[in-house]
Write a structure and sequence with these properties.
Elements: H1 2-23, H2 28-54, H3 57-69, H4 71-86, H5 96-116, H6 130-135
Helix pairs in contact: 1-2, 2-4, 3-4, 3-5
Biased composition (Gly residues): 22-32
Region (Disordered): 1-45
InterPro entries: PDCD5-like, PDCD5-like_sf
C-alpha cells in the first residue's frame, strides 16, 4: 500500500512540475536551466521509485555501497535492472544474491571485452638484439 501511495504522490508531483515548466517565473536565461534541473530531479525520483519497487532492502543497500565506490558501475547496474523490470523479465524483487550474480555477469562481460581489444606483441627470436652488438667488440 505504501509503495502505491508513494508512487501516486510522485506522479502527481511530476505532473505538477511539467505544468509549471513553460510558465515558470524568473528571467528567461534561468528558465531553461530550472527546467533542466527539474527534469533531472523528476527523473531521479522516478528511478528511485522503480528501484525501491524491484529491490530488496539488502540489495538496495549493496547497490548504495557500490555507488560510493564507483558511481558509473552503480548507474549501469540500475539501468540494467530498470530495463529488466520494464520488459517484464523480473518476476519478484531482486535479492542481494541475485544482485551479486548480476555483478559477476557484468564483470565477466567486461573482462571478455577487454580481452577482445587486447594487443599482444611477440618478439622475433634470432633477430637483431642490442646486446649482441656489445659482445662483438
Amino acid at each position: 500500500m505504501a509503495d502505491a501511495e508513494l508512487e501516486e504522490i510522485r506522479r502527481a508531483r511530476l505532473a505538477q512540475l511539467q505544468q509549471q515548466g513553460p510558465r515558470g517565473g524568473g528571467p528567461a536565461g534561468q528558465d531553461g536551466g530550472e527546467q533542466a534541473q527539474q527534469r533531472k530531479q523528476a527523473e531521479a525520483e522516478q528511478r528511485a521509485s522503480i528501484l525501491t519497487q524491484i529491490l530488496h532492502p539488502d540489495a538496495a543497500d549493496r547497490l548504495g555501497r557500490i555507488r560510493l565506490v564507483k558511481e558509473s558501475r552503480a548507474t549501469d547496474i540500475e539501468n540494467r535492472l530498470i530495463m529488466l523490470a520494464q520488459s517484464g523479465q523480473l518476476r519478484s524483487k531482486v535479492t542481494e544474491e541475485q544482485l551479486k550474480e548480476l555483478l559477476g555477469a557484468i564483470a565477466e562481460n567486461q573482462r571478455k571485452e577487454e580481452e577482445e581489444h587486447k594487443i599482444v606483441f611477440t618478439r622475433r627470436k634470432g633477430g637483431w638484439d642490442d646486446d649482441d652488438d656489445l659482445l662483438d667488440l
